[in-house]
Amino acid sequence: MRFSDLPTRLPLDFLIAPVRAVGARPRAPTLARHAAALLLLPAKPSVADWLALPHGGLIQDVFRLKPRKPGDFFVLRVGARAETLLTVAVGASQMSAFEQLQALGKAARALLETEPRTLLLWQQGMPKEPAAGALVAAVAALQAGAFALPAFKSAAPARTRLARIDIAAGARPDGLERAMASAAGNNLARWLTALPPNRLDAGAYRGHLRDFARRLGMRFQFYGERELKRLGAGAFLAVARGNAARDAGIVRLSYRPRRAAALDLCLVGKGICFDTGGTNLKPHKSMLDMHTDMEGSAVALGSLYALHALRSRTNVDCWLAISENRIGPTAYQPQEIVRAHNGTTIQVIHTDAEGRMVLADTLSLAAATAPRAIIDYATLTGACVHALTERYSGAFTNRLETRAAIEGAGAASGERVWCFPMDADFDSDLESTVADIMQCALEGKGDHILAARFLNRFVPKEIPWLHLDLAAGTRHGGLAHIGTDITGFGVRYTLDLLDRGWPRTAPHA
Ligand SMILES: [Zn+2]
Fold first, then answer.
1. What topology does CATH give the domain 182-499?
2. At the top level of CATH, which class does the domain 3-172 belong to?
3. Where in the sequence of the chain do the CATH 3.40.220.10 domains occur?
4. pTM, whole model, 2 decimals?
5. Cis link prior to 283 (omega < 30° from 0)?
6. How many CB atoms lie within 10 A of CB 257?
7. Fewer CB atoms near the end CB (10 Å): N or C, the chain?
8. pLDDT score, position 9
9. How far apart are CA 177 and CA 167, in angstroms?
10. 437-452: per-residue pLDDT in tens?
């Protein structure tokens, strides 16, 4: 592959491998037709389980070589000519969703190292419901592990792509379609986030989004600098000023499965393609990975993609704030006063708090379309990472009575979130003597909460709103079933949350 041939088009055609149901319990000849297979077993298989398994005696011998506990896996070769590489994952139905994904992620990656073209997946000995959950989690892990992020090595060996997963489960397990759609959305989000900043500047990102809308039959609108000036989006434009190419703007993608119905949901994302910190420049190590500062927008897009793939009946608009945050003679500076789209005047304190500036106007524009709910995604604050590490993301909502659903979706999807307080009295920390509000406080304490209070000014209280500060967006060594540092955290979470009917509160909650 030459450098010029490298990924320039969204990989929508191969985000995930198709899954085929191949009947119930496999026999030895079915297994022999696969070069790779993943078997899920309980922690203590019964005698009947060993008898039911093809090559059960051999698998049992290896199983018994040492004590096995839930989460373990082992690899062996089976078949007359040892033709099948079999990975056996133990006890996957007896863990939390997060632990299950983490364990199956490790097992899946061990199996995928051999780059099989097809593989067989089945379980033996689990009760029906946990079995379906474990199989579906295994599919999620395989789809994540098999997807290659963009790489730019001039002499990279050709890689065999996983072309199909065969499930021997009698029928397609419950939840499979949602897991597939989530995996595709997550892979898309990670692919975009991994692109280097000279491959994904604001202009290139807009091109990808236009391509996305065209291929999926959605409406694409772009609010460029001139249009945003007319709309009075001064907070976004302050950040955009440092872009030499003058190509920053807000992209709106519209998915309308029910043409005449009201708008149900806006997904809003922070898309800072590279964050230098601006005039308040970041030091070397803090700046290094700032090409990932557009991950919030990629997760919003991945969630939209997943809803589209599921043919969701939800009318959704996706609002993406696309800019870079640069230094330079035209870049915005501390102590500027700017006026946002909703009329609020903002005293700029620190140019590296650019995320809340671009989101302020994007949320305000989205709110003006009167959706039933808004969810926004942003790699927003270091304070959130300090509070939670990269294992959880922070959740903030103007409907705290829905906290059980918000945190429950995190536990069930394996993408865990924690609700922070957002009481109104925090606002006094953002009081300005010269404007309506300060962009941030001088000290960093509780900055994730203050950022949420700042954003709250741009969402009318009538609209249920969830703000996700993506502390878990990147983590060294990955998270749950995701093996790459870029986690794409949020797509699985969003589908689970919407499935719970959020923001509607359950009558008994
Ligand atoms: Zn920043």
1. Aminopeptidase (3.40.630)
2. alpha beta
3. 3-172
4. 0.97
5. no
6. 14
7. C
8. 87
9. 13
10. 999 999 999 999 999 9
